[in-house]
C-alpha cells in the first residue's frame, strides 16, 4: 500500500513518545526524516531509534527534501506560526500541535498560507479521534440524559516550581500558560461535544508571578439557549483529564477524556440515570487514528478533515476571549 511520507520538525517528547510511534503503526503512513534546529547527533539518535532514512540538523533542510509529503510540528507554541507557514510554502501538508497559534490572527495567517499553497493543515487535537466522544454524542442525541444543561471539562497536572524554571509550558515568551497547554482541550471539547458555540465567557486566572503565566484558569461559559459550561485548566493540581455533561434526566462522566492512551487506549463512559450507573468501555488508538485520518485526506485531496480550519479558528477565537477576560477581569463576548 502506498504511504504518505512524514517528516518531523523537532524532537520534543510528544514526538518521540506519541506521534512518531503512531506514524509507525499507521496503515497509510511512514516516518522518513527528523530534524533538529542544529543538533545533528540528537536527530541521528531519533532517526536510528525509529529506523528513519534521514536526519537533518536544520528544519529548512527537511522542508527542502522532495521525498517528504507531510510534516508534524511539535515545536514550542511561539514557533508554530513561523514553521507552519514555511512548511506550507514548501508544499508540505502539516499536522501542527495545539494551539495552532497564539492568537486567532496568527492562526488566520497560517490558514492563508495553507490555502495559497494548496496544502492541508490540521491542528493536532488527537483526543477527539478517540471513538468515545462520538459515543457520548450518540447518547446525548438519543435523549437518554434529557436536555443538556451543563458541561464541565477539566485538564490539569502538577508542575512543581523547580520544573517550571526549565519547562516551556511555564515560559510566557514561548507561549506558556495553562489555557494554551491544557485548557484548549476543554474549550475544544465543550464546543465540539455540545456542537454549539459559547456566547460569552468570564475567566478567573491565578497568575504565577515568577513566570508571568496563568497557572490555573477557570472559565465560565454561557450559550444562547441557556446552557452553561465550565473549563478548568491548571499546573497547580494533580492529574485530571475528564469532562461531565449534565442533563434534565441524567448525566455522563468521561474520566479519561483527553489521555485514554495512558490507560492502553481504553476510554470509559459512566452514564447515570437516577440511582443507576452504566459504564461503557470504548477502545481506540487516538494518535494513530489522527495520523491515518490526515494521511487519507492527503491521498484523496480531501479538504474535509475532522478538525477543519474553520473549527480551529472558532477555538482560537474563544481562547482569545479567555485571555481577554483575564486581562480585563470581566465577562467578554466570544
UniProtKB/TrEMBL annotation:
Residues 4-124 form the Gfo/Idh/MocA-like oxidoreductase N-terminal domain. The keyword Oxidoreductase applies. It comes from the Bacteria. GO terms for molecular function: nucleotide binding; oxidoreductase activity. InterPro entries: Gfo/Idh/MocA-like_OxRdtase_N (IPR000683), Gfo/Idh/MocA_domain (IPR050984), GFO_IDH_MocA-like_dom (IPR055170), NAD(P)-bd_dom_sf (IPR036291). Keywords: Oxidoreductase. It holds the Pfam family GFO_IDH_MocA. Residues 134-252 form the GFO/IDH/MocA-like oxidoreductase domain. PANTHER family: OXIDOREDUCTASES, TRANS-1,2-DIHYDROBENZENE-1,2-DIOL DEHYDROGENASE. Belongs to the Gfo/Idh/MocA family. This is Predicted dehydrogenase. It comes from Salimicrobium halophilum.
Amino acid at each position: 500500500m502506498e504511504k504518505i511520507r512524514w517528516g518531523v520538525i523537532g524532537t520534543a517528547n510528544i514526538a518521540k513518545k506519541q506521534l512518531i510511534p503512531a506514524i509507525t503503526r499507521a496503515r497509510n503512513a511512514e516516518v522518513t526524516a527528523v530534524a533538529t534546529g542544529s543538533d545533528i547527533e540528537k536527530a541521528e539518535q531519533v532517526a536510528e531509534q525509529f529506523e528513519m532514512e534521514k536526519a537533518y540538523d536544520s528544519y529548512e533542510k527537511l522542508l527542502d527534501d522532495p521525498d517528504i509529503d507531510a510534516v508534524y510540528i511539535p515545536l514550542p507554541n511561539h514557533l508554530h506560526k513561523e514553521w507552519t507557514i514555511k512548511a506550507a510554502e514548501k508544499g508540505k501538508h502539516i499536522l501542527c500541535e495545539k494551539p495552532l497559534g497564539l492568537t486567532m490572527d496568527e492562526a488566520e495567517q497560517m490558514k492563508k498560507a495553507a490555502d495559497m499553497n494548496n496544502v492541508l493543515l490540521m491542528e493536532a487535537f488527537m483526543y477527539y479521534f478517540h471513538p468515545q466522544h462520538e459515543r457520548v454524542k450518540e447518547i446525548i442525541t438519543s435523549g437518554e440524559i434529557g436536555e443538556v444543561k451543563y458541561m464541565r471539562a477539566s485538564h490539569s497536572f502538577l508542575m512543581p516550581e523547580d520544573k517550571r524554571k526549565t519547562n516551556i509550558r511555564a515560559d510566557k515568551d514561548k507561549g506558556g500558560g495553562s489555557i494554551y497547554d491544557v485548557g484548549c482541550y476543554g474549550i475544544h471539547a465543550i464546543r465540539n461535544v455540545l456542537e454549539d458555540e459559547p456566547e460569552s465567557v468570564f475567566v478567573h486566572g491565578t497568575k504565577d508571578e515568577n513566570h508571568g503565566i496563568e497557572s490555573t484558569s477557570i472559565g465560565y461559559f454561557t450559550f444562547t439557549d441557556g446552557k452553561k459550561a465550565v473549563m478548568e485548566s491548571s499546573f497547580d493540581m494533580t492529574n485530571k483529564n475528564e469532562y461531565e455533561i449534565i442533563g434534565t434526566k441524567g448525566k455522563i462522566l468521561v474520566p479519561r477524556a483527553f489521555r485514554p492512551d495512558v490507560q492502553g487506549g481504553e476510554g470509559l463512559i459512566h452514564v447515570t440515570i437516577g440511582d443507576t450507573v452504566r459504564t461503557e468501555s470504548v477502545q481506540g488508538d487516538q494518535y494513530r487514528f489522527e495520523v491515518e485520518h490526515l494521511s487519507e485526506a492527503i491521498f484523496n485531496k480531501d479538504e474535509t478533515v475532522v478538525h477543519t480550519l474553520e473549527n480551529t479558528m472558532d477555538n482560537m477565537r474563544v481562547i482569545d476571549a479567555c485571555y481577554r477576560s483575564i486581562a480585563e477581569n470581566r465577562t467578554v463576548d466570544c
